TrEMBL record:
Record-annotated membrane-spanning stretches: none
The protein's name in its UniProt record: Tetratricopeptide (TPR) repeat protein
Repeat listed as a keyword: yes
SMART domains: TPR
Leader sequence residues: 1-22
SUPFAM superfamilies: TPR-like
Domain of life assignment: Bacteria
Pfam families: TPR_2
Alphabetized InterPro entries for the sequence: TPR-like_helical_dom_sf, TPR_2, TPR_rpt
Keywords for this protein: Repeat, Signal, TPR repeat
Biological classification of the source: Bacteria, Pseudomonadati, Pseudomonadota, Gammaproteobacteria, Lysobacterales
Extent of the TPR repeats: 88-121
Keyword Repeat in record: yes
Length: 172
């Protein structure tokens, strides 16, 4: 009987959290008439709840914090994702944000880690190669293009490589 009560309480607790996440929504009072940073911060707090435990969703929230002037809050989200056995796609998403912020060395380390952990990612190889070429390292870029094209002829890899020769970054 006691075990049944504990199980019921746990179920209700979990259900309550799920309902709470689903019910969280942005309200006009959080952004109307507010200074931009204040409005954004209020909406990001809602977005954090809406994101739940999803890594991609949390990274998207972290991106806005990081690039929008709340760098410590964004970094805290990234650190949490990275500390919990991230997938290669998580590494790529965070690396792209660092690249977008102009922090190539941080981006490069995560891109390289993602490629080490998933050495069959031909599209990822071409994307990282494109970033190298855009930064002037043609030898590193073409080595990655070679690896990518030797693995698989894939449209998105080819487009990423072609664009980088014209100064166009891969579409993220």
């Amino acid at each position: 009987m006691k075990l049944r009560s504990i199980a019921t309480a746990a179920l209700l607790f979990v259900s309550g959290i799920s309902v709470g996440h689903a019910a969280q929504k942005a309200e006009p009072s959080q952004y109307r008439g507010k200074e931009n940073k204040q409005a954004a911060h209020a909406l990001l707090e809602v977005a954090k709840v809406q994101a739940g435990k999803g890594s991609w969703e949390r990274i998207a929230v972290g991106r806005i914090y990081y690039l929008g002037g709340f760098k410590p809050e964004g970094q805290a989200i990234f650190d949490d994702v990275l500390a919990n056995d991230p997938e290669g796609t998580d590494l790529f998403r965070i690396a792209r944000i660092y690249r977008e912020a102009g922090e190539w060395e941080r981006a490069k380390a995560l891109f390289e880690r993602a490629l080490r952990e998933n050495p069959k990612d031909s599209k990822g190889m071409a994307e990282v190669g494109a970033y190298y070429l855009l930064l002037g390292d043609r030898a590193a870029a073409e080595a990655l293009f070679d690896r990518s094209f030797n693995r698989e002829d894939e449209l998105w890899s080819t487009v990423a490589a072609a664009g980088s020769y014209l100064g166009v970054a891969p579409q993220e």
